[in-house]
Amino acid sequence: MDAVLAPDKPVTAPVTPLERARSGRMPLAELLGHANAMQAAGQPGAAAGLYEIWIAHTESALRHVACFNWGTMLSGAGQNEAAEAAYRQTLDLAPGFAPALLNLGHLLERRGDAEGALALWLQVYDAQPLPAEDLRLHALNNSARLLEMKHRYPEAEALMRRSLEIKAAQFDVIQHYVHIRQKQCAWPHDLPVGEVTPNQFLMGTSLLAMMGLSDDPALQLLAAQRFVAERVPKAPAVPLHQQIAGAPREGRIRVAYLSGDLHMHAVGLLTPELFELHDRSRFEVWGFCWTPDSMQPQRQRILKALDHHVRLAGVDDATAARLIAEAGIDVLVDLQGLTSGARPAILGYRAAPVQVSYLGLPGTSALPGVDWMLADRVVMPPELLRYCTEKPIYLPHCYQVSDRQREVAPLPDRARYGLPEDAFVYCSFNNNHKFTAEMFEAWMRILAQVPNSVLWLLADNDTAHQNMLRAAGAHGVARERLILAPRVAPAEYLARFTLADLMLDTFPFNAGTTASDALWMGLPIVTRAGRTYISRMAASLLTAIGLPDLVTDNVADYEKLAVAIGRQPLRATSYKRYLAEQGRRSPLFDVPQIVRDIETEFERLALKARAS
Q1: What fold does the segment set 414-589 form as a domain?
Q2: What is the overall mean pLDDT for the chain?
Q3: Of 466, 462, 459, nearest in space to 435 by CA
């Protein structure tokens, strides 16, 4: 029997995910599975295309979920306009869909539309019915953050309170709540809210805020350690400078300064001569920074003073550390610590064999990558060392370098600022967050005891102004005895110091750059020295300039001294005469010597590291 050949069966080609999506019969779960697999395989464009086709061809009550995921994927790829369109399509399909409102708000914020972002987030935290708790908190906390950035402090504080009333255990929110009350001179800083406990207030207070609230060195160390434990990645077991294979370090010592504040900032105002006066026969000066680029004269002067400048904006921390190590840096000087905008993780890699903290954070950072801190024996006495993770590099006279080339405007008269010609003028041009209820009460008692005296203050915001006037009234001090100084250009700011008779320092957060400016312009300062580095800064400056008798160590003596000088104006005149004749020739302003002292210590540490 002859064999019969059966006809070939037709071969059906497998259906691709795109074809399934185009058919309109792909379930949402299948779409999500395919899209996630494409993303995991490094094909975000294909995943986005799949979402787009599915949405265009599928009728489903869950289309808004696909639109939202599509928007999230586009946003992650930096396609902001397309992402915005996807989020808006989501909201057309499901008005009030909280995740889309939140993400669209972030897109609007990034393009500069703060009001648009705030309006979207308002729809989340004020929605009826209320969305899930985590979504409400997200909307409240980001709205508060953005309002704080816009200096709309009362509105920001109100939203922080709402957030903490929903959930007390939010240390980030507590941190901002405490500090925003400091900025507004809203005392007490820890006004009870919701179920937040006293311990949560303490543990949630940032290091910067703690520096302005307490001179207990153990509390400052605690705040620093908590931040490092929560926010700073663990350092590698082997320091990066040892991992990077290269020729042994030799020749000139390479010292690098690390900061995002090398412009019109307190650090950027103090340091230009430090960079300029380094001995180029022995030192090569590098700057690694993420300061915003500008043609600002202060910024350009700093850049000109550096032998090498490496931009770290947009560079991740690991790469930044590698750049430092590959440059063969001997001494890395961190000028920012844990202050706003700092990048402490870079230091954790130990890109240089010697890493030093200076100026930006006047206290311990608890960073494991920082072994040393520039100091003097006034600002960092031996009893403070047990509370500092860094070892001191003691300079002989004063820890603070400054700038002798400060531009000063023509000297004004008192009428220009509304100051009485015949009054004794106390002043404090420190930032308002340094003002405490205790010190403000001391200032009011001083005014009460010195007839015909006024207090000239910087007011950063209207709320701080009103709160200070209210506190003055509560102490029986007439409102007109508090005169507010507007913010002005640096040259004019320096010139107006000459109009005051005596500067009253803040405590426990002393004046630093402001104290240097006052003394440079010949204005004496009464300070109170405490138990922390930051509460001893002005004492260090006054000692170096030859006026240690203006340093007190308790509030009663501080008041007594300020009152005595106010009642004897000729005493203030005598201090001014001394500063005019001797101040700028004192060790405080012998900047070349201070730089040589710093170089001596850096050279010692660098050569020791090279030999090890």
Answers
A1: Rossmann fold (3.40.50)
A2: 94
A3: 459
